[in-house]
Amino acid sequence: MTTAFVPKETRPGETRVAVSPESAKRFAQAKLELWVEAGAGLAAGFADEVFRAAGARIVGPEGWASAMVLKVQPPTAAEVSRMQPGAILVAFLQPHKELEVVGALRARGVTALAMELVPRISRAQAMDALSSQATVAGYKAVLLGAVHLKKMCPLLMTAAGTVQPAKVVVFGAGVAGLMAIATARRMGCKVEATDVRMAAKEQVESLGAVFITVPGAADMEGAGGYAKEQTPEFLRRQREEVGKRVAEADLVITTAQIPGKQAPRLVDAAMLRAMKRGAVLVDLAVESGGNCELSEAGSVVEREGVTIVGLANLPASVPQHASELYAKNVLALVKLLLDKEGQLAPDWNDEILAGCRLTHAGEIHHAPTAQALSAGKLA
């Protein structure tokens, strides 16, 4: 029987775990022996006893010798050195940031499957961890914004008078943006949103928000439904068109990201100066450079009278549900690697496995990462 090890996450601030008690039961049904490191689920609210009751075995660091390792964050180089050559790793691997780890995985002969590289095709929807975690981030962004606002969100009619609803502007109507829109609407906010993909207009309006149309947005959708990298001219037009809405907004949420690249700069210092004093901006792209010029990763700062929330890894602030969703994504991908007897039998010609395979048999299989390594970017 194939063994899969779930270690405790060691990156600062990471509270999620790669399996949930419910997915642990599913692993047993798939005839896979699940080993969970002691304490791995505590930060997400899952005690060792719950995993044990679900059929998992609670182990120590010796689990790194398993045939498969399931994680949330990339491993450290030291953790890679504890893995068996030929083992399979499933995790968010951030190859554009973690070239040293990618090099260690290649040298160790580990087959690394990057959850963020799972193709956006219908058959892979159950494995789309980027979307599941973006859903959590979009939800939490609105809550953080509401906490820092100096006013309430909904329209209220009281004996003391009427309280007007908070005005919210959302940049980006992908998964995170749509969840932010839906959450803000549920809280009674008046919401407007903009996106470079005209296809997003119907989705935004279906949630009760107003879509801000920017001239030239029709051709900005790329492969897999992701936004293309915008031209400087389009970004200028977007700033002009959206700027007047931002100036009136109480809360601005920016979610625009381009996979593997620097996030587009959407809100500059001039736009911040035009915003109302006491307004709040939540930058969900802060880990990839930020959509706001003055965002600071991992911090909440006040600039030009505006509170800028640049907290990273928001899914980890909702670890129970974030872990449950991620665990389902991981389980769906792992089942693709197994035969009916629970033995590893991956078909590397499968479109999904070929798409997310980062390293295998001492080779890099992701072209942009291979190019970065060959260009000497690995220190």
Quick recap:
This protein is an alpha/beta fold. The protein has helices spanning 21-29, 48-53, 77-81, 99-108, 129-148, 175-186, 200-206, 232-248, 269-274, 319-335, 351-356, 367-374; strands at 3-6, 33-37, 57-59, 68-70, 88-91, 111-114, 156-158, 161-163, 167-171, 190-194, 210-211, 251-254, 280-283, 300-303, 306-309, 357-360, 363-364. It is globular and about 65 Å long.
Topology:
Blueprint (H helix, E strand, L loop, with lengths): L2 E4 L14 H9 L3 E5 L10 H6 L3 E3 L8 E3 L6 H5 L6 E4 L7 H10 L2 E4 L14 H20 L7 E3 L2 E3 L3 E5 L3 H12 L3 E5 L5 H7 L3 E2 L20 H17 L2 E4 L14 H6 L5 E4 L16 E4 L2 E4 L9 H17 L15 H6 E4 L2 E2 L2 H8 L5
Parallel strand pairs: 1-2, 1-4, 2-3, 4-5, 5-6, 9-10, 9-12, 10-11, 12-13, 13-15
Antiparallel strand pairs: 6-16, 7-8, 14-15, 16-17
Helix pairs in contact: 1-10, 5-6, 5-10
> Which word captures the global form?
globular
Give the neighbour order of strands across the main sheet.
3-2-1-4-5-6-16-17
The N- and C-terminal alpha carbons lie at a distance of 39 Å
> At the first level of CATH, what is the class of the largest domain?
Alpha Beta
Main sheet properties: 8 strands, mixed
CATH architecture of the largest domain: 3-Layer(aba) Sandwich
What is the strand tally? Answer: 17
What does this structure look like?
Helix content is 32%, strand content 17%. It is an alpha/beta fold and 379 residues long. The chain is globular and about 65 Å long. The chain folds into 2 domains: 3-127 and 319-374, NAD(P)-binding Rossmann-like Domain (Rossmann fold); 135-312, NAD(P)-binding Rossmann-like Domain (Rossmann fold, 3-Layer(aba) Sandwich), CATH 3.40.50.720. The chain has helices at 21-29, 48-53, 77-81, 99-108, 129-148, 175-186, 200-206, 232-248, 269-274, 319-335, 351-356, 367-374; strands at residues 3-6, 33-37, 57-59, 68-70, 88-91, 111-114, 156-158, 161-163, 167-171, 190-194, 210-211, 251-254, 280-283, 300-303, 306-309, 357-360, 363-364. The chain starts with a strand and ends in a 5-residue tail after the last helix. The longest helix is centred in the middle third of the chain and has 20 residues, at 129-148. The protein has an 8-stranded mixed β-sheet with strand order 3-2-1-4-5-6-16-17, with helices on both faces. It has a 7-stranded mixed β-sheet with strand order 11-10-9-12-13-15-14, sandwiched between helices. The protein has 12 helices and 17 strands. The mean pLDDT is 93.
